[in-house]
Write the structure tokens for this entry.
Amino acid sequence: MNYSASKICKIFSLSSKPELTKKMLLNAESQGVIPKQSLIAMNKRSQKLWSPEQVPLIGQTFGFLEKPKKPLVLTTFVTKGGVLKTSLTVNLARIAALHNIKTCVVGLDMQGDITTGLGFDYNLNDDMSIKDALTQINQAQGLMDYYKKDCSLDDIIHPTDLPTLSFIPETPELVALNQSLNNRNRREFWLNEMVAEPLKEKFDLILFDCSPNWNLLITNALTSCDTLLAPLECKINNFRNLKMFQSFLGSFKNEMQLKFNTYYIPTRYSGNRKLSKEILNWYQTHLENCSNYFIRESLQGEEASALFLSLPEYTPLSPTALEMNLLIDELWQQLTQTNKDINYKPKNNLRPLHP
Ligand SMILES: Nc1ncnc2c1ncn2[C@@H]1O[C@H](COP(=O)(O)OP(=O)(O)OP(=O)(O)O)[C@@H](O)[C@H]1O
Ligand SMILES: [Mg+2]
């Protein structure tokens, strides 16, 4: 995908900040502050556009996110499936990368949604036999190969269309990795010591995308992170699940003496449903560190995920895209403040629930 001036203006727009205009972009282009667009053929006409490689340099100048002073490690996890964990991870990763923030997403869910969601290229073609295709797929290396020392960490980091966004794909061997970790000393710390710490040498933002099932990959991701991102669906089932999740998480955090912060993000909000509104309101008034924004239930969200894009890239004019930018801006402010504060003490997020 290439980016027009009007799309760039929307991708980097926030209602709380002065509007970025086409004129400002074109001025910056003519002064050499940002890269030059190329004339690209589109159906019967040509249009001046920026390529994905160029956009991070524009985001660095005109965007709303600043590079963190030191690398940030975030884990997206909650014990409930389908609540937009991966969609949030992909949106945050792409938006940060568009701001020239070097980002690496590590997929820890055997379902492989990061591998799909960031467009992993297996080099398959339609003329292949099923046997050749399977051989090709099985050759993809992941964390288990690195754990067994069959390859280096660099070997399993894959590029995307954005030069500032990389990822470590999930492979089916994550199941075996989970089992192998079980037999190790310091089994909760392998990911931090062998993956998160080395990644910090190269990336500003590291994101672990987790499955909804509590396992050793999750506990490893929790011991590695500065902040846990916990999406909470604005639906009654998730609401009931929250208390259990908080108590589980609280015990683990205490036993392991971890200091990560938890940031709750309401998702799948439906403004035309009374229950959804009430649940959103409850989250935002009762939970410490709950976003003032939310991710709305929308077809556009589904479509953006299917095309491996963030909402602001896919549908820049829609309110859902602006909501995503506001959510990420708010989250980023919290994260980078925490990041700046060397005497930071985590808050205890566990409050009694009174549904
Ligand atoms: N804003 C949205 N509204 C509704 N559906 C969405 C939205 N954004 C993404 N989706 C779709 O919802 C489905 C579940 O989303 P996602 O994979 O992010 O959830 P998850 O919490 O990671 O799930 P899992 O627990 O299986 O890992 C996906 O098919 C995705 O395309
Ligand atoms: Mg997921």
In short: The radius of gyration is 21 Å. The pocket of magnesium ion (ligand 2) is lined by residues 85-86, 109, 113 (CB under 6 Å). The chain has two domains: 1-51, 65-340.
